[in-house]
Amino acid sequence: MFVFIIRRILQTIPVFLGVTIIVFSLMHLIPGDPAQIMAGESAPAEQVENIRERLGLNDPYPVQYWNYLSNVLQGDLGNSIRSGRDVTTEIGHRFWITVELAFYSIVLSVFLGLIAGIVSAVKQYSFRDVTLMLIALFGLSMPNFWLGLMLIQWFAIGLDVPSWIPFIDNTAWFKPSGWGSFQQIVLPVITLGTGGAAIIARMTRSSMLEVIDQDYIRTARAKGAKERVVIYRHALKNALIPVVTVVGLQFGGLLGGAVLTETVFAINGMGKLVIDAIQARDFPLVQGTVLVASLLFVLVNLIVDITYRYLNKRIDFN
Amino acid sequence: MANESQNFDNILEIKELQTSFFTEDVEIKAVDGVTFDLPKGKTVGIVGESGSGKSITSLSILRLIDRPGKIVGGEIIFKGENLLDKSNEEMRKIRGNQISMIFQEPMTSLNPTYTIGQQIGEAYKIHEGLNKAEARKKSIDMLKLVGIPSPEKRIDQYPHELSGGMRQRVMIAIALACNPDLLIADEPTTALDVTIQAQILELIKELQEKLDMSVLLITHDLGVVAETCDYVAVMYCGKIVEYTDVKTLFSNPQHPYTVGLINSLPSHEEDIEGDLPIIKGMVPNPTNLPSGCRFAPRCPYATELCNTLPELVTDDNNHQTRCWIYTDEWNGSTEVKTYAERNS
Amino acid sequence: MGQPAINEQKSIPIKKKKSQRFKDFYKKFKKNKAAVIGAILIFLFILISIIGPFFVPYDPGAVSPTNKLEPPSSDHWFGTDHHGRDIFSRIIKGMSYTLFVGFSSVFLGLIVGTLLGIISGYYGGRTDSFIMRCMDVLLAFPGILLALAIVSVLGGSLRNVIIAIAVFSVPVFARIVRGSTLAVRKLEYIDAIKALGASDSRIIFKHILPNTISPLIVQATLTIATAILTASGLSFLGLGAKPPTPEWGAMLSDGRNYLYQAPHVAFYPGMAIVIVVIAFNILGDGLRDAFDPKSKK
């Protein structure tokens, strides 16, 4: 196990280097002169040269990359062109907002996904199963930004309920923008968590169905175990193992999806930061944000892999 | 000696059991009117090829038939009570307690995510309401009983840490934990090495005497039957074609299918030149069974009479056979009767 | 916005006559009602995208300041947007963009991914580990972010969105093809054919590719669904199709500003995306069941 963890950590090093190479190269894929583009089309030549010098664009690529990498390793992601502040500061607390959003969303997806998946699998082809799987299909096929907009319209603008109906307040239940209070958190988390919930539900269902057919489930029944125990003790524990990997992959989708969710709900996280940076042509900021998000994803996958291995070590020994 | 069986108190009587599987458009009668008795303290073997319905019969007794299968008729009388009349909850209390079962695949029949101790202990928790410590103590005793060395260490291991033979011993420990009256062993040795096979069979036999159990042994291996069983039911395509005590089966097999099975065993008495005789043809497709005797298409003696299904007929020695040859209606060569006998 | 599901086919392919394989597949496929519905829907969508624009009630680009933000009515089935354009007509017109982006980006990713996967699986060794590490790196970018980064660099346009999504789907295809290539390569008959002097290209095209086709088709179908979602997301962010284009994501982005007065402006384009994506998803699921030798029906 220890050897595995070390090996797995070592394996992330080339991935890390690869990510930095790609992020670094992005700057050079910009058609035309990056310095000119960043300075603006009508900028005087002097200013362009200034930027070029500051970014070290006159050095040969490998040297530039080496400088970039050593800066990154020291936690220096360069300076934002617009604000002039360093990128790490710019990302700063926005990083935590996005992590918080992603965390709540993944909790929601796992919670809803597991329940729906188990309930479906236990009664395969029942009305319940079919309905839940149709909902999951819908959830999976829905653009989350659209769901976000619809949620805003339904729950944050105010329901179109005639005022004479008692108990239903037709003022807004939740807030359409910002981050922090409960009223601000609910809608974005649902928006971002729904797709993951759908995927986890489908995965859990098929994994449960596979496990329920296993010999050891028959053994448990032959032992006289209650059906509830058979499902929740014997089947679920085994069925969850493959679901763990999906949760890890989901996290990536979630970080990406956060870009759209944060845009819809005007949340000042990393996702909105990257969009603002793209629109402002603030490439160092784009580079920095993409790099940080990728590293976060790599880290989460590392943890998930180790967890998976830990859960699976009893099975995959040979 | 066959008469003895009637004086026995039967622990299990199966009457006209029918279990079917329902696919989109057809009903597959996996078990089609099976009737036999299991005398108390004895071992009955059910022999047959795969697809003969022998495993389904054993699963039906515990009512462990899963969708799309269903028990559609018959009676399963266990200690005088029909199991098919029991509620699910009553049935659950019988499983693993009064009737236990061990399966063919020890490699996959244990839950990979729980320790051996947890899996044996569960039986005690379910049926005897023991707490963790008591269950653990009893589990260790059980592991000792089934011949697992250093049980205190083994009890905390996971299934993957044990060999196939060890796992089957653990399965037996789980099955026998609550001292059942009846043990159903579904091909318990098929997946094991030959040397281990003998050990496991020996263990079952030994524990049967020690714990005063009856055993229903499902196997495709006549050799295993000869070693362990008192009575044998031969199944073919969901029906019992012959039922008798084990000695008679080998000395005087009646049904042509049984004769074929026995003839295809390697014999050490006579020198057989060339290949072993085999039963010609193939087991018919279960969705398209012959309307008469199921074995007729492969039977060397079949006549038009065999297009009608024969009854299971009991002779004076309580030897039951489902074949027209042993009835008065038989219109084929009379030599066949003696031929079949002699040929064994 | 899910990461495309990674669906490596591990089972060793069984050699069967082509016609027989197709018959088996067709029989199973026909029984899978959802898949048939998906296929019919997609066929209809393609038809709509080709001939639909000739039959729409209004010119999708026609601005009508007097009819701004009208709710759905018999005149305007899905209402009008902030320029008074008919949303129904725009959605019909937008179908072709959606399908084009979906098909072309996945096709591109499929070609490149298959090539890399075959090279990787067939030649093995260092080539293999190099290519696969590169794929790992691409997969290390969370979801839409890689596409976002690429588009931000290349500039927002439909063409660049296609390129970005293609890059983003390459690793998935490469992994699948590598997996089945390895599985086939291990089979003894490949050694036998090699001993008989078959060339690499013959082995690849005659023996390896046919065996990777089914998982590829399944994955491609499901990836089209993801690609459409990603593309609409990029357009929504203003990084894809530019405003007058009736691209659904861009239309949604317009509708965003009128949620209070005219929620239908955002509702219908989103519904259109959902329906198209559902069609590809159920077709993909159905194909997977039909191709899967383990599936019961």
UniProtKB/TrEMBL annotation, chain A:
The chain crosses the membrane at residues 12-30, 101-122, 134-157, 182-201, 239-265, 285-304. GO terms for cellular component: plasma membrane. It is a multi-pass membrane protein. InterPro entries: BPD_transp_1_N, MetI-like, MetI-like_sf. Keywords: Cell membrane, Membrane, Transmembrane, Transmembrane helix, Transport. It is found in: Cell membrane. Coiled coil: none annotated. Its main location: membrane. The keyword Chloroplast does not apply. GO terms for biological process: transmembrane transport. Residues 95-308 form the ABC transmembrane type-1 domain. Belongs to the binding-protein-dependent transport system permease family. This is Glutathione ABC transporter permease.
Automatic annotation (TrEMBL), chain B:
Keywords: ATP-binding, Cell membrane, Membrane, Nucleotide-binding, Transport. GO terms for molecular function: ATP binding; ATP hydrolysis activity. The gene is oppD. Belongs to the ABC transporter superfamily. This is Peptide ABC transporter ATP-binding protein. One of its GO terms (cellular component) is plasma membrane. The lineage of its organism: Bacteria, Bacillati, Bacillota, Bacilli, Bacillales. It comes from Ornithinibacillus halotolerans. It holds the Pfam family ABC_tran. PANTHER family: DIPEPTIDE TRANSPORT ATP-BINDING PROTEIN DPPD, OLIGOPEPTIDE TRANSPORT ATP-BINDING PROTEIN APPD. InterPro entries: AAA+_ATPase, ABC_Ni/Peptide_Import, ABC_transporter-like_ATP-bd, ABC_transporter-like_CS, Oligopep_ABC_C, P-loop_NTPase. It is a peripheral membrane protein. Gene3D superfamilies: P-loop containing nucleotide triphosphate hydrolases (3.40.50.300). It is found in: Cell membrane. GO terms for biological process: peptide transport. Residues 12-262 form the ABC transporter domain.
From TrEMBL, chain C:
This is Peptide ABC transporter substrate-binding protein. It is a multi-pass membrane protein. The chain crosses the membrane at residues 34-56, 99-125, 137-155, 161-177, 216-239, 266-287. One of its GO terms (biological process) is transmembrane transport. Keywords: Cell membrane, Membrane, Transmembrane, Transmembrane helix, Transport. NCBIfam families: Opp2C. Belongs to the binding-protein-dependent transport system permease family. OppBC subfamily. It is found in: Cell membrane. Residues 95-284 form the ABC transmembrane type-1 domain. InterPro entries: ABC_transport_permease (IPR053385), BP-dependent_transpt_permease (IPR050366), MetI-like (IPR000515), MetI-like_sf (IPR035906), OppC_N (IPR025966). One of its GO terms (cellular component) is plasma membrane.
